[in-house]
Design a protein that fits this description.
The chain is of the alpha+beta class. The protein has six domains: 46 residues, no CATH class; 94 residues, 2-Layer Sandwich (Alpha-Beta Plaits); 236 residues, no CATH class; 88 residues, Distorted Sandwich (Calcium-transporting ATPase, cytoplasmic transduction domain A); 133 residues, HAD superfamily/HAD-like (Rossmann fold), CATH 3.40.50; 148 residues, Calcium-transporting ATPase, cytoplasmic domain N (3-Layer(aba) Sandwich), CATH 3.40.1110. The protein is 45% helix and 17% strand. The protein is built from 30 helices and 28 strands. Strands 16-28-27-26-17-24-25 form a seven-stranded mixed β-sheet, sandwiched between helices. The protein has a six-stranded antiparallel β-sheet with strand order 6-5-7-13-8-11, with no helix packed on it. Helix 14 runs parallel beside helix 28.
Length: 922
């Protein structure tokens, strides 16, 4: 299974092999003339080669940071696209390369530039083979380097987590001391030293220089480089509150209030919220990390000579990522299998539940395939490595999930665009809030000036600027809101001057606007839900390609199934061989058909070849093999034992339309036999031959020999495939979800109707005689007619065009590589019910994304005006900066927690539970 690039550059890929020259119409449709020149007589430009790499990005706090990093990277001409994920803190970069491309220099420039603007970047993946970096050069990366980088990154996260906890502990200690200084107001008794203004000023200074320093520095760095972020808003609020309080403290004659407690409380609440958010965010990627942890670090390498004694005394322990293909690996009971391989010695049961979701272990013996990450349970085995490193199934699943997390839902692109301007907008609103209340608001609503200072503020005193007692604000809410006129000034206090009152009120409201705004919740809304959803899907054997797929799933109205290999098991068997000529035996018909089909990848071809092997028929050499999906195959074959010399024998195996293309009519006898077999639901193919014999020269032809051509239908072969056990129940489940279900097949109408009847599909819900190109056309027509999304479920090369055309392509992992690469959802288990499971999961995840975005938008739409004082004139509700910071932290945490709820609310469908229960019971 290969992970295809999400974006393709312009260019056309043509197969110009000697046996398959490029089609002239295809060349001309792309502006290329047959002589290799374009319309202007110039050689067409060759399409650029692209490669991908991953960068680890530090310092991102919100959606604005994501937009800033993406904008910074996309400004480089060599970068085709850059996608950044806030939760995983990674950037996926697709770039153009050529033979002399200085990729290492490019990467160094990108990471240096990001680091300068406050986003330290590190290369996580090896540089592309297209780069000019020599192996072993300082900037090249090997598999060992990749493992070391991943380990270093995990260790770095652990260190950062410890540092975050240390800063939080200091901030909470300062907050506790600040509260202790107000013991008298809280009825705890008077503590004169702790209640002095200079003590609270010292606490505020320590808060800014200690745990709050990173916030201020990072915010200033972002503002200086024109990429303001969440820390910019919080840092401005902190510095404004601290500066105003410091001025009031140093110049008591101004009569201003000091609110040194606001920076202390704000730092404490912000760090508490971020710590909780970080812990919750780490849980969103728990499923992916559990998949990565399945890969064992060590492997038991055995010598090339292996016997059946299962003695591991000569084994050598080596790093698992250094295993090479065809090496022999020993696995003891209880150990994880390090690579994909084939068992050559021993027998055991293997737990594959973490990869496929199957609860029961699978018996593995000599000749069986095993996958990396599965757990060997009962016996020792020796296997030969077939896929190692990044080529293993486990590595591909991890890569698939990681890629899926970088593909954003279309709605997220809009959110990122808005977030790019969000911080500028918030700073503008804060400035306008200050100007409004200072110049206009207090004149229009003079009663707001009668609101008493918060009980944690230090009103201005004329005794050396020191505070000896605080004013009481009766009825202040626990969140820091003050009720208008609810407090009475102390008798020893002088009335606050009007100018000072205006300034204090305006500053508090402007600061509240800065710290309540939450671009974090906007940035976390989609990626957290996507991480949880894709991880949950991976644990259940459902691989979703990205956020854009979720939005498409939500628009689905119809699910279309291919028949062979999808609704059926994909393992048809030959049931009938009918000879239509007296001189051709059934064995000869099977032999000719298998000779043609031996190089074809299709369930019917496999059934014919399997039947020939069972009868131990020796196949003949075939040349000029030609396959047309949906019709049949043809090849030139010869039988050395024939006495009659043939110039050429062409064998045709396929449908009636295939024979007609070769000018071979189907007689009544053949058609009658075909109809009789097809009526029972069997798939029937014709086997015919076109003979070219060299004859004697005719009198009027001189010495030239003549060629005689003979067309003959030798017989028919009928194959039958069994329906998957859960096919009918899956269709019923999809119907209960409000989806229309259809079946497309290349079979004739008679055979297709018999299958549809077993599945309770109406005549309007299946289409027979569908060629591969017609499947894509049918999907396109269904999308147009229904004005809804259409999902296509298939597994073969015949289904690739339809999978690409469908709104959502769904492929079984047992299918062909081209079908898997074309699909947007891959089902790892051989269960058709997983189609309903995947759609159910996709709908649940997208609903969660919409909930998160709705909450984030509503919070900011309501919270910012409230912080700006919109409720102040009528209700007297005043939100302090500390309370605003608490709400901001709560907003981010709530989005992450809402996404985590998916792990408990998105349960398997009723059908999946019933089938799993029945399987365990068996």
């Amino acid at each position: 299974m290969n992970i295809a690039s999400s974006e393709q550059r312009s260019g056309v890929s043509l197969d110009s092999s000697p046996g398959n020259p490029p089609d002239i119409n295809t060349l001309e449709s792309h502006g290329i003339s047959p002589n290799g020149l374009d319309g202007s007589g110039n050689l067409p430009a060759s399409p650029p080669t692209t490669a991908q790499l991953t960068l680890a990005i530090e310092g991102m706090k919100c959606a604005g940071c994501v937009k800033a990093v993406e904008t910074r990277l996309n400004q480089y001409p060599e970068i085709c696209s850059a996608t950044v994920n806030l939760v995983t803190a990674k950037a996926t970069v697709e770039y153009e390369v050529h033979r002399d491309a200085p990729v290492a220099d490019w990467v160094g420039q990108w990471t240096e530039d990001l680091t300068k603007v406050g986003f330290p970047a590190t290369l996580l993946t090896p540089l592309s083979d297209h780069s000019a970096v020599e192996p072993g050069a300082p900037n090249s990366a090997t598999d060992d380097d990749t493992v070391d980088l991943l380990a270093a990154q995990r260790q770095q996260r652990q260190v950062a987590s410890r540092q975050q906890l240390q800063k939080l502990a200091i901030a909470l200690l300062l907050l506790l001391l600040s509260l202790t200084g107000h013991a008298k107001q809280m009825g705890w008794g008077e503590m004169p030293i702790l209640s002095t203004l200079w003590f609270h000023g010292m606490l505020a200074t320590l808060a800014l220089m200690g745990p709050g320093r990173e916030i201020v520095v990072d915010g200033w760095k972002g503002l200086r480089h024109n990429v303001p972020n969440m820390n910019t808003l919080v840092g401005l609020g902190l510095l404004t509150a601290y500066s105003a309080s410091l001025v009031a403290f140093l110049i008591p004659a101004l009569g201003w209030d000091c609110f040194f407690d606001e920076p202390v409380m704000l730092v404490g609440f912000i760090l508490l919220g971020r710590t909780l958010e970080h812990r919750a965010r780490s849980q969103t990627s728990a499923a992916l990390e559990s998949l990565m942890d399945l890969q064992p670090k060590q492997a038991r390498l055995l010598p090339p000579e292996v016997d059946s004694t299962l003695k591991f005394s000569d084994s050598t322990m080596i790093p698992a990522h250094r295993i090479q293909v065809d090496q022999h690996i020993g696995v003891l009971p209880g150990e994880k299998i390090p690579v994909d391989g084939c068992v050559i010695v021993g027998q055991s049961t293997v737990d594959e539940s973490m990869l496929t979701g199957e609860p029961l272990p699978v018996v593995k013996a000599a000749g069986d395939e095993v996958t990396a990450g599965s757990i060997n349970q009962s016996g020792a085995i020796i296997l030969t490595a077939t896929r190692v490193g990044k080529d293993t199934t486990l590595a591909q699943i991890v890569q698939w999930v990681e890629d899926a997390q970088t593909r954003k839902a279309p709605i997220q692109h809009l959110v990122d665009t808005v977030a790019g301007y969000f911080t500028y907008g918030v700073m503008a609103i804060a400035f306008l809030t200050f100007c409004f209340w200072f110049f206009l608001g207090t004149h229009w609503f003079p009663e707001v000036l009668t609101i008493q200072p918060h009980e944690m503020h230090h009103p201005a005193m004329n005794v050396g600027g020191m505070n000896v007692g605080g004013a009481s604000a009766v009825g202040a809410s626990a969140m820091g809101a003050s009720a208008m006129g609810a407090g009475v000034m102390g008798a020893a206090m002088t009335p606050m001057p009007t100018l000072a009152a205006k300034l204090l009120l305006s500053l508090k409201l402007a600061i509240a606007v800065l710290v309540i705004a939450c671009p974090c919740s906007l940035g976390l809304a989609t990626p957290t839900a996507l991480l949880v959803g894709t991880g949950l899907g991976a644990k259940r054997g459902l691989l979703l390609r990205g956020g854009d797929v979720l939005e498409k799933i939500h628009r689905l109205g119809t699910v279309v199934f291919d028949k062979t290999g999808t609704l059926t098991t994909g393992h048809p068997q030959v049931t009938d061989i009918v000879s239509l000529t007296p001189d051709t035996s059934e064995a000869a018909i099977l032999r000719w058909a298998a000779t043609v089909e031996q190089g074809t990848q299709h369930p019917i071809a496999e059934a014919i070849c399997q039947a020939a092997r069972q009868q131990e028929l020796s196949l003949l050499a075939a040349t000029q093999v030609h396959t047309q999906p949906g019709f049949g195959a043809a090849a030139v074959a010869s039988n050395p034992s024939e006495a009659v010399a043939l110039q050429q024998r062409t064998i045709l195996v396929g449908t009636e339309a295939w024979l007609q293309q070769h000018h071979l009519p189907v007689g009544d006898q053949a058609r009658s036999q075909w109809h009789q077999l097809a009526a029972s639901g069997k798939t029937v193919v014709f086997v015919a031959q076109v003979l070219s014999r060299s004859g004697q020269p005719q009198e009027n032809e001189g010495d030239r020999p003549t060629t005689q051509t003979q067309h003959q239908i030798m017989g028919l072969i009928a194959v039958q495939d069994q329906l998957r056990p859960d096919a009918k129940q899956t269709i019923e489940q999809l119907h209960s979800m409000g989806l229309r279900v259809m079946m497309l097949t290349g079979d004739q109408a008679v055979a297709a109707g018999a299958i549809a009847q077993q599945l309770d599909l109406s005549p309007q819900d299946y289409i027979a005689n569908v060629k591969p190109q017609d499947k894509a056309t049918t999907i396109q027509r269904l999308k147009t007619d229904s004005n809804q999304g259409v999902a296509m479920v298939g597994d073969g090369i015949n289904d690739a065009p339809a999978l690409a055309e469908a709104t959502v392509g769904i492929s079984l992992h047992s299918g062909t590589d081209i079908a898997i690469e074309t699909a947007e959802i891959v089902l790892m288990r051989p269960h058709l019910r997983d189609v309903a499971e995947a759609i159910h999961l996709g709908q649940a995840v997208f609903d969660k994304i919409r909930q998160n975005l709705a909450w984030a938008l509503i919070y900011n739409i309501i919270g910012i005006p409230v912080a700006a004082g919109v409720l102040l004139p009528n209700t007297g509700f005043l939100l302090t900066p500390a309370a605003a910071g608490s709400l901001m932290a709560f907003s981010s945490i709530s989005v992450v927690l809402n996404s985590l709820i998916l792990r408990y609310t998105c349960q398997p469908t009723r059908l999946a539970k019933e089938l799993a229960h029945n399987k365990i019971a068996e």
